[in-house]
Amino acid sequence: MHEVSLVESVLDLIQDSARVNGFVRVKKVVLQIGQLANVEPDAMSFCFDSVTRGSIAEGACLELLDSPGVAWCMTCQCSVGIASRTSGCPACGGHTLQVTGGSEMRVKSLEVEY
Amino acid sequence: MCMTCGCGDENFRVHGLPHPHTEDHHHGDPAGGSFSRIVEIEQDLLSKNDGFASANRKRFAAKACFVLNLMSSPGSGKTTLLVETVRRLQGHLPVSVIEGDQQTSQDAERIRATGVPALQINTGKGCHLDAHMIAHALEKMPAPENGLLLIENVGNLVCPAEFDLGESSKVVVLSTTEGEDKPIKYPDMFAAASLMVLNKCDLLPYLDFNVEAAIAYARQVNPALQIISLSARTGEGMQAWLDWINNGVAEARAGSNRGAYTYLGRGAKTEYCKA
Ligand SMILES: Nc1nc2c(ncn2[C@@H]2O[C@H](COP(=O)(O)OP(=O)(O)OP(=O)(O)O)[C@@H](O)[C@H]2O)c(=O)[nH]1
Ligand SMILES: [Mg+2]
Ligand SMILES: [Zn+2]
Ligand SMILES: [Zn+2]
What is the pTM of this model? Predict the structure, then answer.
């Protein structure tokens, strides 16, 4: 699954930051994973330990923040909350929706040691 | 909110316990040797891939090359479709193919048998192509100038959706033997694509596949999705697909003549309200 490559990208960004900021250990990694992101948070934390083993982030704890799915309904001409990409507009039941939020996958911050 | 570590932002539970904010905002005891602090990153997980992808996209634009990223579950007929496509386009415009599979170079050999250049990328355990692999492939086999580059992704209806390669368009191939509910079972792929090719339509008389339902499901996750039904085996419906490609090739050529190339960015198709 691509959760492994995503965690590898996280580690990449951490290592870049370590080169710039000079920290030697990462204690915590904070990620934001939107509810509509194409990723399973459980799978992500599952492979986090193995991917970071032997790295500067070995043993770090992983904190996942989520953000709600939001879409623009072209029928209702308003912004609505949606639980998944297949759910309809809660107001009109239609599917003329464009996702506007909730698909983020970001590294927010790190707690690091020098 | 504290700008250094985000304390005070209610979305953040950064340090657990409340703590005094000292001037340099280091946490822990410097005298004790190690001290910790918060480093803001605020970067997209895929920012590296997206960086390679946008470099690829610039190279394609400079060559006025139309580039397709074909994705589907294993066996839906991507290679068959590509073989039949390059057979028909060869001689009319410069075409080359990049094949992505975990193992073997069989698909690239099937393409080469037509006389069209093909490069195989083996991803090993990797379940998708990424923009960095494509950048290396382009060193070995440059994108055809004023032509068409077809990229067949690893057979997988989940992961490739996430990785921008720098292509002009993403194409998802769905075959009639897979069942009409795939678009709602794997919505991210169908949300990311701009065209769905419904393949193996020659088999429809033998199956209970409901074409209307498949199209309705696909539009449910992506109202703007274009759809072409065809059979790579019999050639039925192929002309609409070739027209669609020729149209893209013409646009890529025109775009480079104007010297203007606008790409709305990652996920822009489904998220253009965001900005
Ligand atoms: N009946 C029928 N069979 C097809 C059609 N297109 C492909 N096939 C068959 O489907 C099988 C798989 O085709 P491929 O072209 O290898 O599929 P693929 O998507 O490239 O497969 P992977 O690269 O392994 O993911 C082969 O046996 C093809 O002959 C079609 O339009 N009709
Ligand atoms: Mg193939
Ligand atoms: Zn995967
Ligand atoms: Zn609505």
Answer: 0.85
